[in-house]
Amino acid sequence: IVLIAVLLVNTFTLQSKQIKPASSQRLNLAENQTAISHLSKAIQIKTISYDDTLMMRNNTSFDSLFAFLHYTYPLVFSSLHDTVLNGRNILLKWEGSNKSIAPVILYAHMDVVPVEENTLAQWKHAPFSGDVGVDSASSENCIWGRGALDDKGSLISIYEAVNKLLVKGFKPERTIYIASGSDEEIGGKKGAKVIAEYCRKSNLHFAFYLDEGGIVSEGVVPNMKKPVALIGTSEKGYVTFDITVNLKGGHSSHPANETSIDVLLKALQKIHHSKFEKRAPQSVQEFMDYVGPEMPMPLKIAFANRWLLKPLILKEYTKTAEGNAMVRTTGVTTVINAGVKENVIPNKVSAKVNFRILPGETVTDVEQHVIKAVNDKRVEIK
């Protein structure tokens, strides 16, 4: 009886942490046709990042996007100080009136990931169409194409906002930097890293740095019926392992009991089924603090009493892909290279397994986990 009383008191005294704005108004896209058109046109420019450095060097789409931004937002580029870094990255400085307060930086990357050619028939709209229309599934107005969310939506939003404020004659009190990187999808070494090094050498210290994050989502947070604005306060780590097997090949007419492909597939299955421990790092704990009061009953009871019921919450989260990724390190096979001819057993086969590491764990932790899971000396893990 005492335990039940404690659970209920904690539940009904759990207060919402949401900020209540003075007013709330959703942007009417029908009244912003210019912004819609600009995002649509930006999507049509194929600023694809490739792992192949030669393809990146020969990709002139970034020059086209530069030209588009200068043509579309001449007031922005004439009013803000413009620095081009490493040929493909933009850093704009909007001078503030108060030099005593720290500046801020807004970031959005210009590149997108490639499209698999064999999936083109499955797209409702061509991936670089920039089509505008109503989605029949949700009845929502949509802009379609690579980069609409990741991350040209952010890029164009920033430029649109700055342009509108400049037209109104607005001058910020705090200096604002606007950064646009060109290779986020392949690690950011020639984009965000170069911008960061420039800021460091320029002795710039920012009050905050705002990058792409989550979205206003529906159905992403398990069991949450309300729309949720997902704000990223930490980021998972990233590592890819090459898994290689090199055994004797031969002709398909007289195969050995186990081939390189057999051994590789078994290793990948072991990795897949060997799950990392589920847990809630600090950023997820803070997320639960804010989402808990908004949960429907009886889940609100669990969130109000995590000291007792956190294992149930974690178990519930692992039932969805998004929830599972919040509470454990994940790994998935993304590339397999094996064989060159249908009647030849290959000697060397390989795969890439990509891991996203939960805060608090390390690359070494993941490596040890993979080695233990595979437990086969014939498999090279690098």
Largest sheet: 5 strands, mixed
Order of helices and strands: HHHHHEEEEEHEHEEEEEHHHHHEEEHE
**Overall pLDDT, averaged?**
92
Q: What percentage of residues falls in helices of 4 or more residues? A: 25-40%
Q: Which spans of ≥5 residues are poorly predicted at pLDDT below 50?
A: none
Strand content: 15-25%
Secondary-structure-derived class: alpha+beta
State the end-to-end distance.
56 Å
Number of strands: 15
Explain this structure to me?
By secondary structure, this protein is α+β, with helices and mostly antiparallel strands. Helices cover 35% and strands 18% of the residues. The protein is built from 13 helices and 15 strands. The strands form five sheets. Strands 1-2-6-3-7 form a five-stranded mixed β-sheet. A hairpin with a 6-residue loop joins β4 and β5. The longest helix has 16 residues, at 152-167. The N and C termini lie far apart (56 Å).
Question: Keyphrases for this structure?
Answer:
382 residues; alpha+beta; five-stranded mixed β-sheet; four-stranded antiparallel β-sheet
Structure described in brief:
With 382 residues, this protein is of the alpha+beta class.
